[in-house]
C-alpha cells in the first residue's frame, strides 16, 4: 500500500482524536477525507456529512466520496458517543444508543467500505476501541460493551478478508487529554494519572501516530490485533 495516492477515510474526524488522526494520516501523504455528523468540516480536509447511526447516510456518504475522490483504502472507524451513568440508572435507550453509534455504526461503515476494498484487493480497517473494552469501567456498561464488541468484529473481518489483502485491527486508547478530561479538577486528574503505570494521560497525537503506523506499509502483516495506547493501564487484557 503506497501513501502516494491512497485515500483515507476518518469517521468523526472533525475534532478531538479523529482530527488528530486525520492530521497524522495527511502528514504521511494520504488523501484524507473526514466525516462529521454535526458542526462544520475542519479546514484543510475534504469532508462529507455522515451519520453512522443511519445506513442511508453511510451509503450516501460513500457514494459522494467515490464520485469525487475514488475508493477509500484506509478506513478509520472513530465516530462514537458516550452516555455514562451507573447501571441502575442506565435506560435501555442509553445502552442501545451507544451500541448503535459505536459498534453498529462501525459495522455499517466497514461493511460499506469492504465493497470497494474487495475490488482493489487491499485495504486497512482500523477501529478505535478503548482500554475499557478489556478492563471495564464503572458507569460505562454501554460504552465498555460497545468497545469490547469491536474486538470480535475486527477479528472476524481479519479472518474473512485477509486473503483479499485487507487487514483489520483495533487501536485501544486509555485516558486521553481531551476537552472533557480538561474539565476535571486537579485531584481527580492526579487519581486517574496515578492508576496509569506511565503516570500521565495520553495525547490525541500519540494515538494518531499509532493509527498512521497501522495504516502504513510497515504494518502489512499485522491483522486481528489490539494495539493498546494506554500507558500500560490495560496490560494483560
TrEMBL record:
GO molecular function per UniProt: oxidoreductase activity
InterPro entries according to UniProt: KR_dom, NAD(P)-bd_dom_sf, Sc_DH/Rdtase_CS, SDR, SDR_fam
Domain Ketoreductase: 6-195
GO BP annotations, alphabetical order: monocarboxylic acid metabolic process
The keyword Protein transport belongs to this UniProt entry's keyword annotation: no
Keywords: Oxidoreductase
SUPFAM superfamilies referenced in this protein's UniProt entry, alphabetically: NAD(P)-binding Rossmann-fold domains (SSF51735)
Entry's family note: Belongs to the short-chain dehydrogenases/reductases (SDR) family.
Name under which the protein is recorded: Unannotated protein
Originating species: freshwater metagenome
Species classification: unclassified sequences, metagenomes, ecological metagenomes
Amino acid at each position: 500500500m503506497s501513501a502516494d495516492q491512497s485515500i483515507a477515510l476518518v469517521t468523526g474526524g472533525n475534532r478531538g482524536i479523529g482530527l488528530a488522526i486525520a492530521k497524522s494520516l495527511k502528514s504521511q501523504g494520504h488523501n484524507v477525507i473526514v466525516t462529521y455528523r454535526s458542526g462544520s468540516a475542519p479546514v484543510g480536509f475534504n469532508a462529507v456529512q455522515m451519520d453512522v447511526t443511519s445506513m442511508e447516510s453511510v451509503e450516501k456518504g460513500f457514494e459522494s466520496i467515490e464520485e469525487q475522490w475514488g475508493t477509500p483504502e484506509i478506513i478509520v472507524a472513530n465516530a462514537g458517543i458516550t452516555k455514562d451513568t451507573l447501571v441502575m440508572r442506565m435506560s435501555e435507550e442509553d445502552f442501545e444508543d451507544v451500541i448503535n453509534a459505536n459498534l453498529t455504526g462501525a459495522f455499517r461503515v466497514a461493511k460499506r467500505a469492504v465493497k470497494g476494498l474487495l475490488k482493489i484487493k487491499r485495504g486497512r480497517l482500523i477501529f478505535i476501541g478503548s482500554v475499557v473494552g478489556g478492563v471495564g469501567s464503572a458507569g460505562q456498561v454501554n460504552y465498555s460493551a460497545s468497545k469490547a464488541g469491536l474486538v470480535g468484529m475486527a477479528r472476524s473481518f481479519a479472518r474473512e478478508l485477509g486473503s483479499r489483502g485487507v487487514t483489520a485491527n483495533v487501536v485501544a486508547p486509555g485516558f486521553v487529554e481531551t476537552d472533557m478530561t480538561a474539565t476535571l479538577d486537579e485531584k481527580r486528574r492526579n487519581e486517574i494519572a496515578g492508576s496509569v503505570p506511565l503516570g500521565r494521560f495520553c495525547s490525541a497525537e500519540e494515538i494518531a501516530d499509532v493509527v498512521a503506523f497501522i495504516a502504513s506499509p510497515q504494518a502489512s502483516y499485522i491483522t486481528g490485533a489490539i494495539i493498546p495506547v494506554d500507558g500500560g493501564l490495560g496490560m494483560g487484557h
